[in-house]
């Protein structure tokens, strides 16, 4: 069995009266006895002593009674207002808290969340709310403006839209009031951040793609596109119209790009450099974009054709050695693929007396023997 302990506690009580013009001091009846013994198993909220305080002013001024000091300090005793009594100090209270409020994640700096309203039935001193924010690491995003009682998003933090649903979607802002003796009870704002649809974001501002001219779907390039959606929406990738984007198409789950038509750069039929815009469209129709710079390389896909009408040269006995004329041919391919070189493939016995130079010139190079 536990031995009962003896705890001796001395309480000093102070009662204050509101200043009024005809103030007469409150009359405090003394404790009925100077010492009260209580059992160890006394339940909390058991009344130990009743004191009576009266004020003789008409009407009576509010009276506030509190324990001023005790020995040992912080003893487990409080002064209670007795039921039915008036003019005892009461807790200050917020009249619009607790509250569950919402705010959009794109709310601007300085946005007012709510205007706190509070009362103190028996004001003894000026009261001013003090609010704390959970999570504390984001306390700086909120501010309480004491002259207007506005609880709002901070407006001096250089973040145009301080909230982000994807990072924090719930705040608890707890506010306290203290009238010098008593605190308010349970006042908070549960602030839910509402998601606002945001557009998909491509990792890069532009991507490049190198293709060879080819039939539809043949030449392909890897794009390495990376696109994310802040709201984790399902995305569709498309090539936006413009710059003949229909000549190209995305394939292989948008990892690759190829031709949507038979693409031909010969004779400048179609451009070798094309800038397209790719778009990622989310479920709500918001689109993020990136550029795709396409280079189409020529392929040696054309055979050169002779364009000169001359098909034979006639040499008379008196013909001097020297140039006879030229043959010309054209190749539709571009660049080096379109350059033509000329070679002799075969011929009659006259072949030994003429020669061909690189640019198509035919020269009578050695005298045909006279009979
Ligand atoms: C806030 O919402 C919670 C959860 O829905 C609910 O339990 C609570 O009563 C609400 N508080 C107020 C003040 O509406
Ligand atoms: C088309 O090309 C031009 C010039 O290269 C570029 O400025 C423009 O943005 C392109 N249009 C699209 C839809 O990509």
Automatic annotation (TrEMBL):
Q: Which domain of life is it from?
A: Eukaryota
- SMART domains, from UniProt? CA
Q: Name one GO cellular component term.
A: plasma membrane
Give the bilayer topology. Single-pass membrane protein
Chief localization class?
Answer: membrane
Ranges for domain Cadherin come to 95-202, 203-306
Q: Which residues form the signal peptide?
A: 1-22
GO BP, one example? homophilic cell adhesion via plasma membrane adhesion molecules
What PANTHER family does its record include?
CADHERIN 96CB, ISOFORM D-RELATED, CADHERIN-87A
Protein name per Swiss-Prot or TrEMBL: Cadherin domain-containing protein
Say which species the protein is native to.
Lottia gigantea
């Amino acid at each position: 069995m536990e031995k009962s302990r003896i705890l001796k506690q001395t309480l000093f009580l102070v009662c204050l009266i509101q200043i009024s013009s005809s103030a007469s001091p409150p009359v405090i009846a003394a404790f009925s006895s100077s010492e009260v013994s209580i059992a160890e198993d006394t339940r909390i909220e058991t009344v130990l002593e009743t004191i009576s305080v009266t004020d003789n002013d008409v009407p009576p001024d509010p009276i506030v009674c509190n324990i001023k000091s005790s020995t040992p300090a912080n003893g487990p005793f409080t002064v209670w207002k007795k039921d039915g009594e008036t003019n005892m100090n009461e807790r200050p209270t917020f009249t619009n808290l607790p509250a569950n409020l919402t705010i959009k994640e794109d709310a601007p700096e300085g946005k007012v969340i709510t205007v706190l309203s509070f009362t103190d039935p028996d004001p003894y001193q000026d009261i001013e709310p003090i609010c704390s924010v959970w999570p504390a690491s984001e306390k700086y995003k909120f501010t309480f403006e004491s002259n207007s009682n506005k609880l709002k998003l901070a407006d001096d933090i250089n973040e145009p839209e301080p909230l982000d649903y994807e990072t924090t979607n719930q705040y608890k802002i707890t506010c306290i009031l203290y009238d010098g003796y008593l605190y308010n009870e349970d006042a908070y704002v549960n602030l839910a951040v509402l998601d606002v649809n945001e557009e998909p974001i491509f990792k890069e501002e532009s991507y490049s793609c190198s293709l060879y001219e080819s039939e539809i779907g043949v030449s392909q390039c890897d794009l390495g596109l990376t696109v994310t959606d802040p709201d984790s929406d399902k995305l569709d990738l498309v090539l936006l119209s413009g710059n003949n984007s229909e000549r190209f198409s995305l394939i292989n789950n948008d990892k690759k790009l190829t031709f949507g038509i038979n693409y031909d750069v010969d004779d400048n039929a179609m451009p070798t450099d094309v800038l397209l815009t790719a778009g990622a469209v989310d479920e709500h129709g918001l689109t993020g974009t990136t550029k795709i710079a396409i280079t189409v390389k020529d392929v040696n896909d054309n055979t050169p054709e002779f364009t000169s009408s001359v098909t034979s040269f006639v040499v008379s006995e008196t013909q001097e050695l020297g140039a006879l004329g030229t043959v010309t041919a054209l190749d539709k391919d571009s660049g080096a693929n379109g350059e033509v070189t000329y070679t002799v493939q075969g011929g009659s016995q006259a072949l030994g007396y003429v020669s061909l130079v690189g640019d198509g010139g035919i020269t009578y190079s050695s005298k045909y023997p006279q009979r």
